[in-house]
Structure formats: C-alpha cells, structure tokens
C-alpha cells in the first residue's frame, strides 16, 4: 500500500470514509476532481472493515489506516477490533485513528489501556500513528515516547 498518487496530485491524509453515506460515490467524484490518494481512517471494527475493503476496491486511491478511536471504544469488542488491526497493519499505511480524549465519558484508564496495546502494534511494525489527543496531549506524547513510536501525527489536540 502507499503508491498510487502521481507527483503533484493532492492527497487527503485523513478521511473518515466509513462515515460517508456513499463512500464509493465520494471517491469517484474525488478521483474525477484529481485527488491522487486518500488515507482512509478507521475507528472501530466496522469502519476498519469498511476501510480495508475500500482500499482493496480502490487500490492506489484509498490507503488504509486502521485504528481504535477513543469515541468508539466499548468494553466489549475492543480486543476483536485490535486483532483485526493486528492482522492487517503490516499492509496499512498507519495505525489510526487512535488516542485519548479526556472530554468524553469513556474511562481514562480504559482509553490508556487500549492505546498502549495499539501502540505496541504500531511499534512492532514501525508504523506511523494518527493520534487523537483532546485534552490529553501530554499523556499521549508520554505514551508515544514510552512505546518507542518514531513517527506520529497529532490529528486533534487541545489545551
């Protein structure tokens, strides 16, 4: 994964394609308008599956980033999602979207547990991380450093 776009063509580096009502139509329009590639970002098992399938159907246009977004974390099912991510991360362009969000009702310790597990996966394959860090940027940076992550994009952060 990761080829695709021609030099000079724009690339969308972070798109939640699974949230669109008709991702295939949106991608067809983007291609007609000259988009060279899009990093399709996963949040949970359902969106990761959809992003994975889109990256297969639209090879060269959609590049998968598979993740476990803090907004989508559930006590039941998060391990199944990370297993899915683990089996496919080698072929993905990044881990993401993952992170911490200290403004939501998901327990902070649970968020940190899932993020730590996800970061182990990224480190094992030297993948970049697409990080959501709302009101948690210091803790996220600490966790990235502790996990040995060399490349990360702080997608959303606040003070």
Question: How would you portray this structure in words?
Answer:
This protein is of the alpha/beta class. The chain has helices at residues 23-32, 45-57, 78-88, 108-125, 137-147; strands at 11-15, 37-41, 62-68, 94-101, 129-134, 152-157. The protein has one domain (11-157): Metal-dependent hydrolases (TIM Barrel, Alpha-Beta Barrel), CATH 3.20.20. The chain is built from five helices and six strands. The N and C termini lie far apart (35 Å).
Secondary-structure content class:
alpha/beta
Whole-number mean pLDDT: 94
Count of helix runs:
5
Low-confidence stretches: none
Largest sheet: 6 strands, parallel
Helix content: 25-40%
Principal-axis shape equals: globular
Count of folded domains: 1
Give a quick summary of the entry:
This protein is an alpha/beta fold. The protein has helices spanning 23-32, 45-57, 78-88, 108-125, 137-147; strands at residues 11-15, 37-41, 62-68, 94-101, 129-134, 152-157. Helix 2 (45-57) links the parallel strand 2 and strand 3 (62-68).
